[in-house]
Design goal:
four-stranded antiparallel sheet, 185 residues, alpha+beta, 7 helices
């Protein structure tokens, strides 16, 4: 039996080759993806159905943070807004196709746990927002930061997962061992 090494995905370390949909760090990615998706969807359900944010908004939490309800029918900052169901389905389909591509990257190319966790967060967030598009006709956003007349965009837990995943990928790309990997021997 071989020892597990931190620099080798678990399935390769055990002598198994990764498949297209499972292998490498897939388990770690899934353990990150599922909770981020479930927490996002549970929070949105609670805000809309239990707390009824649509009847209360805006709710001032601090002088710089409010809970609001915004249905974003576009992508980041409301760009490419799609008012019809077809447009929402197209954006949801794009998110699903992108998530499939990211999952294949996770299974076939994630070379360390950080990349697996980062990709799991991005996929979980993308799928959470895709579900909103199909079920609600747009992405449900709730968190609004503002200071001295300056307002940041309204976002949700899925967006936080996506941003955290991107930060993880950026951090990994700047790590010294990643820079050395690109140098010819």
């Amino acid at each position: 039996m071989s020892e597990l090494r931190a620099d080798v995905p678990p399935s390769e370390d055990a002598g198994h080759r990764s498949g297209w949909l499972w292998g490498g760090y897939a388990r770690l990615g899934l353990v990150t993806l599922v909770p981020s998706l479930v927490i996002d969807q549970a929070h949105k359900w609670w805000m809309l159905k239990v707390y009824d944010i649509t009847a209360r908004a805006p709710v001032e939490i601090t002088s710089f943070f409010d809970l609001v309800f915004v249905k974003n029918k576009g992508i980041s900052y409301g760009m490419l807004a799609q008012d019809g169901h077809g447009g929402q389905w197209a954006l949801a389909g794009f998110a699903v196709l992108t998530s499939i591509g990211l999952w294949i990257w996770l299974v076939r190319g994630a070379i360390n746990p950080l990349i697996a966790v980062a990709l799991g967060l991005i996929i979980g967030g993308a799928l959470g927002n895709a579900i909103d598009r199909v079920v609600l006709g747009g992405v449900a956003d709730f968190f609004h930061f503002h200071v001295a007349g300056w307002s940041w965009y309204v976002f949700n837990i899925a967006d936080v997962a996506i941003v955290a995943g991107v930060v993880g990928l950026l951090y990994d790309s700047l790590r010294p061992n990643r820079k050395d990997a690109a140098k010819p021997s």
